[in-house]
Amino acid sequence: MPAQRGTRGVQSGRGPHRTYSVRARRNRSATTVRNNRNRFVAGRIVLTIVLVAAGLKLVHIQAFEASALSERAERQRTTIVDIPAERGSILDRNGAELAFSVETRRLWVNLRQMRLTWEEYAREKPESGENFDTRAAEIADHIAGRVPDLVTEDELLAAFHKDASFTYLVDDVEPSVAEAISEKYPEIGYEKRAKRVYPGEEVAANIVGYANWRTDSEDVSEHNLHGLAGLESYRDDDLVGTPGRQIVDTAQGGDVVIPGTERDMQPATPGSNLELTIDSDVQYELQRSLAAYVEKVEAKGGSAVILDAHTGEVYALANHRTFNPNEPPASADDMGNPAVSTPFEPGSVAKIVTATAAIEAGVAKPETTLAVPGSMRVADHTVHDAWSHATQDFTVTGIFAKSSNVGTLMLADQVGPDRFLSTLKKFGGGQRTGIGLPGESPGYVPPRDQWSGTTYGNLPIGQGLSMTVVQMTSMYQAIANGGVRVEPRVVKAKVTPDGRRIPEPAPESVRVTDAKTADTVKNMLRATTQGGDYAYSGTAPEAALEGYQVSGKTGTGQQVDPETGRYSNRLHNITFAGILPADEPRFVVGIWLDAPDTTIPGGSSAGALYAEIASYLAQRYNIPVSEESGPRVKLVR
């Protein structure tokens, strides 16, 4: 019994504790479930918030930013590039091309992409032995073999290994060759270019000038074919045309154009052609004759020009030094044009001003006789004739035909300085001619209020003032044209891309003197080319042309010695201006020789060179011979 009670007592005592433990476990389980449920709900809420936010952002983007993002993406894959316009041609008066353009290609390579491509290839296939260097060497060898006259293999290898992401390789490649190279080697791209061609090479180069691509920047848009000298520069706006614009798709950071993606936005408009007054055959002959004569008399240089006697059109204009514009000029001096840019003291050839003023003023007639001494005093300066002589009776014609300084100053005293200066200005002294070429100098005539006592002892004989050979020749054109000076010009017309021919504005003209005076002066100057004994011989019988009357004037102007700053007795400007033929003027020729050796036969006069040029002109243009030889007049009584 006790034992049994004891057993029950124990069991009865443990019951309540066990009930509590079960309940605790149940409570903990319920709490866990509630916690999990709460976390799940919270997670769903967070996820819902994120999705809603993402949805709202997407809606915002689609509704408000889609257009801007689309445009940004489009800009990243498209590029606008210029389409070069075809440059206009330059033609002579007969339609012969002096300058034109041909289409070429310029090869380039994206070095950055090429390096990445071949570095990856070398890692993936090291057994091939191929890498960027081997590929570059292969391409360089191939290109050099296709265009050996344009680039060497060494030059190409240097370009491939330069520290840059992009580089140009070679210019002036023929389109078909460039396409073949690019097809064989996709790394090599090309852009359209144009090459300027000068078929006459040195012929008229100082007039036509030079045009080339500006490659001082790697920016393709800055590469344009522009004139750098001569008419190519002076009339660049007419010749260059208007570039077009093109859209292309690009890859690899915008450096490489994807073939076949080009779309034109605006086509290029070609430039206008220029028609010149120049006759390229005459130009060639004048350049050849002048260069040979300069060499013969060992001159430092020289220039010459041929003008139409009535229209002032320039048939030829030459300098002793020229260049071949198909090749890069050696220096800027080579591209210069001294015939319009370099003035000089003309000497006695400028006595035409004094002669015209004297005849027009009526102070003398061609047959008027003056007793001319061998020298005369002007202020503190003594003027001499070029040869020693006692006082002699010269006709006015003789004073100019024999080029007496003293006789000229005696006439100038009667004319007076104001009338002389007025006549000089009408002849164009101290003024640009308006020939239409860059760099033209106006020459120099001292202002009237700056004249000293000796100024009027220099100007009438062609010292103390300066002019270009074009200015000098223009003076004689006025006399040949009945006293009317017409602006010389080299451009006749321009022809627009649509074929319209637009003549240049009419040149300005100035009446220098009346027709009777001009005719008198012209006839007086025929005596310059007379030969024979002292009483009849002018200063340039070698300038005479058989069968034709020739009017002309020689000149010998002293140059300033750079060492002493004084007039030199050994350095001279030798000049000649002549009218062919004198009875029916067709051409006027002007020549300047810079410091020839006057001890060499022909060095003290350009008359022989004039005769050579005049003979060519007479034959080329079939100029009729003069009906009569003209009177032979006595120059010294």
UniProtKB/TrEMBL annotation:
Query: Where would I find the Penicillin-binding protein dimerisation domain in this sequence?
Result: 83-256
Among the GO biological process terms of this entry, one is: cell wall organization
What family is this? Belongs to the transpeptidase family.
Record-level Gene Ontology MF annotations = penicillin binding
Q: What is this protein called?
A: Cell division protein FtsI/penicillin-binding protein 2
What keywords are annotated for this sequence in UniProt?
Answer: Cell cycle, Cell division, Membrane, Transmembrane, Transmembrane helix
Would I find Phosphoprotein among this entry's keywords?
A: no
Cellular compartment(s): Membrane
User: Domain of life of the organism in this record?
Assistant: Bacteria
Its source organism is: Saccharomonospora azurea NA-128
Which Pfam families does the entry link to? PBP_dimer (PF03717), Transpeptidase (PF00905)
Residue ranges occupied by any Penicillin-binding protein transpeptidase domain in the UniProt entry: 302-613
Q: Name one GO cellular component term.
A: plasma membrane
Where are the membrane-spanning stretches? 41-59
Principal localization reads membrane
